[in-house]
Amino acid sequence: MHRILAVSLVTACAALATSAYAAPKETGFLSKTLSWKGKDVRYVLFVPPGYTPSKAWPTIVSLNGAGECGTDGMKHIAVGLGSAIQWNVDAWPFLVLLPQKPTVQSAWEDHDELVMAMLDRTRKDYKVDAKRICLTGLSQGGHGTWALGALHPDLFAAIVPICGWGDPKTAAKLAKTPLWAFHGEADNAVPLSGSVSMVDAVKAAGGSPKLTTYPGVGHNSWDNAYRQEKLNEWLLQQSLPSK
């Protein structure tokens, strides 16, 4: 009798564990919190409709610009990639991690460890395709894309800096990374030269970066990039080479 009861309990516990793992996760823009150096830091994770842990999902890390900085953990999804997803959710079958830079005065590279910690948490909680993690950002986030891309050249399958700028001295670290940059030619906030100088430096280092510019377009080149360029399809094609 006791043996039958013990076997029944083991079977029941295994069934519960299997059920919990297989249970569908909530989808959409999810508010998340990470405990980081004694503080709770808020961020957003977009989980696409139809997400299932039975397969590995391509993932995008998206960095916000100056206007979306803060600690509310939410307003940065209204501009850039977050907005593009809301307009056409079916076009973006990715997990999308959206950290929020807390202050305008800081740079994204100052928060590199935090971004990596959020990505690690995402990889623990969701089925991330480790070979298909991409990085993008606009304005200050465009700069962050150049900077973090160079810091982690073996992590990101591709980077997409939009109306950003970088340090040409880091270009050699990006030479093997698929790269598509965007910039408005009439940008008065971040001059077009910010992207041109980086693209030229990556080319000189042996890379094959793409640059799309928009005549007459000012600082907001991100709506064109995320909504009109089939960037989603290009990102789906990117993957780290097999070792």
SSE layout and pairings?
Blueprint: H1 2-22, E1 28-36, E2 39-47, E3 57-63, H2 81-87, E4 95-98, H3 112-125, E5 128-138, H4 140-151, E6 158-162, E7 180-184, H5 193-204, E8 210-214, H6 222-228, H7 231-236
Parallel strand pairs: 3-4, 3-5, 5-6, 7-8
Antiparallel strand pairs: 1-2, 2-4
Radius of gyration: 20 Å
Q: Work out the number of β strands.
A: 8
Alpha-beta content class: alpha/beta
Give helix % range. Answer: 25-40%
Order of helices and strands: HEEEHEHEHEEHEHH
Mean pLDDT: 91
List unreliable stretches of 5+ residues: 1-22
Strand order of the largest sheet: 1-2-4-3-5-6
Strand content: 15-25%
Largest sheet: 6 strands, mixed
- The termini sit apart by 54 Å
Shape: globular
How many helices? 7
